[in-house]
Amino acid sequence: MFKKFWLFGPLTGFTFASIAALIFTMWDWLENPGGIFRDANGTNWNFVYDTAVSWFVPTFITVAIIASAGHILFSALLLAYRKRLSAKHDRFNT
Fold first, then answer.
1. Residue 53 belongs to domain spanning
2. pLDDT over 70 (residue 88)
3. Which of 10, 62, 76, 88 makes a 20 to 30 Å CA pair with 94?
4. What digits encode the pLDDT tens for the residues 31-85?
5. 68 located within any domain
6. Is 56 contained in some domain?
7. pTM
8. Which run of H or E residues covers position 16?
9. Can you list the positions of beta strands (E) in the chain?
10. What pLDDT score was predicted for residue 5?
C-alpha cells in the first residue's frame, strides 16, 4: 500500500473522512440544533444522512489529494536521499 500513492491517498482519505463524518454527524445529532435531527416523531434519518455525506465527501477529496501528493513528495525525497547515499558509498569503495 505504501508503494502505491494511488492506493494510499484514497485509503487514507476514506479512513479519515469516515471518522470525521461519524464524529461530526453524531455531534450534530446529539446537539440537535433547532430540532432538525430528531423530534417527538423520532430521528429524521434523511437529514442525518445528508449531514454525514456533507462531511464525508469534501473531507475525503481533500485528504485523498493531500495524502497522495505527500506520498509522492516523500517517496521522491527518499529516493533522492538513497541515490545520494549510494553514490557516496560507491565513491568510498572505489
1. 8-93
2. no
3. 76
4. 998 899 999 999 999 999 999 999 999 999 999 999 989 988 988 898 888 888 7
5. yes
6. yes
7. 0.79
8. helix 5-31
9. 38-39, 42-43
10. 63
- Cα 3 from Cα 75, distance rounded (Å): 8
Number of H helices, E strands in the chain: 2, 2
The answer to whether the CB of 69 falls within 8 A of the CB of 23 is no
Q: Do the beta carbons of residue 26 and residue 88 sit within 8 Å?
A: no
Q: What pLDDT score does 2 carry? A: 53
User: Residue 49 corresponds to which cell in the numbers above?
Assistant: 444522512
Give Dmax over CA atoms of the chain in angstroms: 82
DSSP state of 34: G
d(CA 20, CA 41): 27
C-alpha cell at 53: 455525506
Which burial class, exposed, middle or buried, applies to 25 when counting CB atoms under 10 A from its CB (0-12, 13-18, 19+)? buried
Q: Residue with C-alpha cell 492506493?
A: 7
| Number of domains into which the chain is organized | 1
